[in-house]
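Design request, tokens follow.
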């Protein structure tokens, strides 16, 4: 499926041709973060289409490695030891171990979707004949490690399109964004069932996912906001279960929301901190709609084609927001919106948060639930 009719730009230099691809080895470099990795999935599908017999590996931070189970074309995962590389005592062992591993694998093509100096450096260390990246990477010196560079036609395109542009230019395929979806992982699904065994969530329940966490403070709407949305929505839909989800860091926020909303524990259930990435993916799959900040759960839900209600403040949804299927973006109109700052430096106590009303979100949740977007057991 193609989301755009944008014209494919010409690469700055020609790709080295390969007569066959049965023994071709390709390395994807995209260590983080969760959303960025998911935004690279369609590009990897393009590469796999062009080289169906090739072995595709992925260099990734261990914290995000489990999401790669959901890409059918990724054969091998290599951990990028960022923590060890950042510590003086472990730097040299980790550095030489990674260099040795990359050289040993004898890659033919390495594609650096990250665009940082360190990611491009390891692309060069691999010794691959083709080292591809963007002509204007996130860190400008990265481009000197590439021998295949591509200029983007528009700096404002979505991250998924940006990555697919590079993949199409590299492979010679016409520009098209494949509509990828994350297939059910039975092992992760069984693991989720074990976690949920002590809850009162039944397979037949209609569920709304609430993800109140985010890495940046400026992306996190207050607990009171989510509690009010749940209070209004649960009154209209008393049979619906509201699931508070997130990492261990979100557990305290989830507990605050539970206390503030004043609903019974049989209707509002906190699973924050109880799921890993894989279990969270299967949990989001069974939700009818997700209410979320700009965060990892938002990107997973979008990749699952689950309807998303996304709250945006400092970031640009047209670049990194939900890409697939029906979703709604809520972003206030202020002169400092899309500031790309982790904290509000304007001293406005987050005008971008206050201008969005809980009633808008509860009404939208009601719309999706009324449409009958129910979880169907597969």
């Amino acid at each position: 499926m193609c989301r755009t009719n944008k014209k494919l730009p010409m690469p700055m230099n020609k790709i080295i041709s390969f007569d066959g691809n049965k023994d071709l080895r390709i390395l994807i470099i995209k260590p983080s973060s969760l959303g960025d990795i998911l935004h690279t999935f369609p590009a990897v599908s393009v590469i796999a289409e062009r080289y169906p017999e090739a072995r595709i590996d992925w260099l990734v931070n261990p914290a995000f490695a489990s999401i790669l189970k959901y890409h059918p074309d990724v054969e091998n995962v290599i951990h990028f030891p960022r923590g060890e590389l950042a510590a003086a005592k472990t730097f040299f062992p980790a550095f030489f171990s990674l260099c040795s591993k990359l050289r040993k694998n004898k890659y033919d093509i390495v594609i650096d979707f990250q665009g940082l100096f360190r990611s491009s450096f390891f692309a060069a260390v691999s010794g691959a004949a083709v080292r591809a990246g963007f002509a204007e990477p996130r860190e400008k010196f990265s481009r000197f490690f590439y021998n295949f560079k591509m200029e983007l036609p528009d700096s404002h395109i979505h991250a998924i399109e940006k990555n697919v542009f590079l993949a199409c230019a590299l492979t010679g395929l016409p520009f098209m964004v494949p509509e990828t979806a994350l297939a059910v992982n039975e092992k992760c699904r069984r693991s989720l069932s074990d976690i949920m065994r002590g809850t009162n969530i039944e397979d037949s329940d209609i569920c709304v996912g609430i993800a109140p966490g985010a890495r940046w403070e400026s992306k996190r709407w207050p607990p009171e906001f989510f509690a009010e949305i749940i209070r209004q929505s649960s009154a209209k839909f008393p049979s619906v279960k509201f699931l508070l989800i997130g990492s261990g860091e979100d557990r305290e926020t989830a507990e605050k929301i539970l206390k503030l909303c004043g609903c019974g524990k049989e209707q509002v259930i906190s699973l924050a901190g109880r799921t890993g990435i894989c279990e969270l993916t299967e949990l989001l799959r069974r939700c009818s709609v997700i209410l979320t900040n700009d965060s990892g759960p938002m990107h997973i839900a979008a990749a699952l084609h689950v309807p998303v209600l996304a709250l945006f403040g400092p970031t640009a949804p047209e670049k990194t927001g939900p890409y697939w299927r029906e979703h709604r973006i809520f972003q206030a109109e202020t002169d400092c919106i899309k500031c790309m700052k982790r904290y509000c430096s304007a001293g406005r106590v987050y005008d971008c948060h206050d201008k969005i009303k809980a009633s808008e979100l509860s009404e939208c949740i009601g719309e999706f639930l009324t449409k009958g977007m129910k979880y169907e057991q597969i």
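Comment from the thread starter after seeing the answer: thanks! The chain has two domains: 25-171, 186-370.
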